[in-house]
Amino acid sequence: MSGRIATIKQALLAVLLTAGMAMTAQVQAHGGLALAEDMCVLTVGPYRMHFTGYQPLSQEEEFCEDIPEVGKTVIALDYIQEELRPLSTEVRIIRDTGSEENIDEITVFYLPPKVYPSASIAVEHTFPEKGKFVGLVKVTGGAQDYISRFPFSVGEGRPTPKAAIIAPIVLVIAVVAFFLMRKKKNNPSAA
């Protein structure tokens, strides 16, 4: 009986370790955006901004990178560093054509340069169709200008987390292994 309990514990430990590795917090770079400590951070040169996106008409939660659905979208950029308050910030969203040569022709949203002493910028835009885009955030007024470019898609839904795919597979393998070991232990002549 104690051998059976040890086998069950080993199988459960294997499942938990594998699932834990699959669900480990990830820092994923997406152009100038990264997920760090459950917070989306946009890096613009030496400066950082907190990035929060959501769609008021959707039941989805906040997003950090790709916009799950077409429609009204609100993006909030909040300065993390006080040094940004006196600087001018410009926001532009362009269609991802592979070239920024005719930037005015491919611009779908433009927020001209402005100083935001409140340290918060609200971007509201309605995306009428699915597609690939690039967000451009430019900070000027310091020692030099800095631009952050981050590609994103609209209307492709939320990607399935790797853990949602891996965990059930690991669980099935663990259960099969458990029953095979159990069968082998109960019937030593079958080995």
Structure description:
The structure is a single chain. The protein is an alpha+beta fold. It has two domains: 1-26 and 160-191; 31-158, Immunoglobulin-like. The chain has three helices and ten strands. It has helices spanning 2-22, 103-106, 162-186; strands spanning 29-30, 33-36, 39-44, 47-54, 71-79, 88-95, 107-115, 120-127, 131-140, 146-154. A hairpin with a 5-residue loop joins strand 9 (131-140) and strand 10.
CATH homology superfamily of the largest domain: Immunoglobulins
Portion of residues in beta strands equals: 35-45%
Structural class: alpha+beta
Order of helices and strands: HEEEEEEHEEEEH
Mind sketching the topology for me?
Layout: H1 2-22, E1 29-30, E2 33-36, E3 39-44, E4 47-54, E5 71-79, E6 88-95, H2 103-106, E7 107-115, E8 120-127, E9 131-140, E10 146-154, H3 162-186
Antiparallel strand pairs: 1-2, 2-3, 3-4, 4-5, 5-8, 6-7, 6-9, 9-10
Helix pairs in contact: 1-3
